[in-house]
Write a structure and sequence with these properties.
Length: 344
Amino acid sequence: MRLAEMLTNRIDTVELVRFTNSGTEAALLAERLAARATGRHKVLVFDGSYHGSAPELMQGHPQVVTAPYNDLDAVDRAMTNEIAAVFAEPFLGAGGVIPSAPGFLRGVQDLAHARGALFVLDEVQSLRNDVGGEQAKLGLTPDLTLLGKIIGGGLPIGAVGGERDLLLLTAPGTPDRLAHSGTFNGHPAAAAAGAITLAHLNAGAIDRLERAATTLAASITSSAAQAGMPIVVTRAGSILNVHFTDTPPTSAAHVRETNTDLLSALHLALLNQGVYTTPRGLINLSTAFRAEDLAKVEEAYAKAFERIARISVKPGHPSGQWPVPAPRVAAERVSVTTDVRDLG
């Protein structure tokens, strides 16, 4: 109860909450709510998005329609009267931490409502960036909000929050209600951990994370430049992503074109420095990080770039004239042939 009250107090658009065991389960519940509310069964998602591992919300499923992120015209064309809901993220998370273009998500929300569909905002990652979620900063009013990760304080949890009328579709007293049961939904341990975490994640903590992420992004960019390597660091609050390119990516397609073996080499080089980031270049900062921790991370990136440059520079491409890497071919298996000892 305490965690639900904290969420409804923090997020203006969340009137009621239903707990699940993961973000994936939350997305599935939102999909079922949208289908019940609209009588439709298709959903629109964005290329490069991630709303869990359920097939019903993944590209390639017959009920899933896909549009490129930051392309409102494409969304307009895809928004048929078969769409029950649009699932969107405040920034394209797993697709490369691509910020939304100004006005894009507000346009998506307006198109969804104009076509009789729900607008579902996935704040599983982004709640950490503002007390009221990214929707507060972007001026969005989603019908449903997906939550997870941070609201469990490290334990398994998920939640759907939103308008009272929509969430009451699952209430026991509602005729022909949408059943939603689960032994561990809203597990006391996860709820207690989440409540403590949210209590500590106040505006001051979020501001400190933001400043640390800004500093780290600048340091990574500077270190790469000194090694003669083209790097762009995209950022959404305290979530960052490193890209081997000299042009800021604006879509998942652009990220795929720049996703080269250098990312794998960077991941390995950082591991050898005692720093873990995701193989795709994603970085998440924590409130537990101290100044000396971030200094070690900055040093690790500097050494990693130096070592990658040292073993990778080819004749005719001296440091400072690094060639933009060729894109990987998605259908092929690409292996990094660099010996771990060269990166250590």
